[in-house]
Design a protein that fits this description.
- The protein is α+β, with helices and mostly antiparallel strands.
- It folds into two domains: 30 residues; 131 residues, no CATH class.
- It has six helices and five strands, in the order αααβαββαββα.
- A hairpin with a 7-residue loop joins β2 and β3.
Length: 163
């Protein structure tokens, strides 16, 4: 009986140590390296559902700029250095994935909240997103909106990059 408790305690300690290894000081997730296109490819590759992977193949990509930031992120006040969107080439499908790398010194939680509060899940006019999720890893913020299942799959794949 004592051996089982010791083993459980050792396993718990190992899990706690390994969990801490993926984070910076203060428990913050490590920053994502590389350009946004590469990060997006890693997110899409990390999706487990084959149907969702096929769905994502038909997406176009483009740069989020000062001129179109309000359409993609909901606010012109987002403090971003660079941005990338990925959406279906057919506008009748309500699904959008956006990544932004924040300006130096911008508060990720504040910017993430700004995006979440400002984004329009009905921007497509004739269709609307069922779910809206935001997350950040370091200075990279993800916005994904669409049907609930695929939104959760994209969110999970993004969060896995920070571990």
């Amino acid at each position: 009986m004592k051996t089982g408790k010791r083993l459980a305690a050792c396993l718990l300690a190992a899990v706690m140590v390994l969990t801490g290894c993926g984070a910076k000081d203060g428990g913050e997730p490590a920053a994502l390296e590389g350009d946004l296109e590469t990060i997006l490819e890693e997110i899409y590759a990390g999706v487990d559902n084959e149907e969702t992977k096929e769905f994502l193949e038909g997406f176009g990509q483009g740069e989020i700029t000062a001129e179109n930031v309000e359409y993609y992120l909901g606010s012109k006040d987002v403090a971003f250095a660079e941005g990338l969107y990925s959406e279906p080439l057919i506008n009748a499908i309500a699904f959008s994935v956006c990544l932004v790398r924040l300006e130096d010194g911008a508060d990720p939680e504040e910017q993430r909240s700004l995006i979440e509060d400002s984004v329009n899940p009905n921007k497509w006019i004739c269709v609307g997103a069922e779910a809206v999720e935001t997350a950040n890893i370091g200075d990279v913020v993800l916005l994904v909106m669409g049907d609930a299942q695929r939104t959760e799959e994209i969110l999970a794949a993004f969060e896995a990059l920070g571990q």
